[in-house]
């Protein structure tokens, strides 16, 4: 009888302490570190728990590197963070090499592509104590340092080719 009472008491304590069975899925916790080296094939990087909401009080740092003599292109597929309070800093170079971010991204507008000036990019994602959103999803690729990426179609314009010897993606 005492054993049954003890088991019931342990069960009540666990229930009141928010006990969670071990077989439930856990959110991704990969919040920092080096990611696979950039290559000519696009690789993906997501904010923690994407496409579900990221957590509060995050301070995540990722370093992306490519081969010597190349640069890194970041292409954002989705971006949704609390405007002004949560942000993604994009640094040109390794962590600690620059005091200011090349870009500080916040809000819900998908950013334009970013092309580094060297073969290392550092990303720092920070969230505050309240309001979380889905975060971001991006692809990164390695490019020759001497090539120019296709800028795409202008926001309020069109790409016109006629009479020009240069086509989309031409190098000048």
From TrEMBL:
Residue ranges annotated for the CUB domain, each copy included: 31-143
Region Disordered, annotated ranges: 23-48
Signal peptide residues on this chain, from the entry's feature table: 1-15
Pfam families linked: CUB (PF00431)
UniProt entry keywords in alphabetical sequence: Disulfide bond, Signal
Polar residues bias: start-end ranges: 31-48
InterPro entries, per database record: CUB_dom (IPR000859), Sperma_CUB_dom_sf (IPR035914)
Name of the protein: CUB and sushi domain-containing protein 1-like
Organism: Branchiostoma floridae
Origin organism lineage: Eukaryota, Metazoa, Chordata, Cephalochordata, Leptocardii
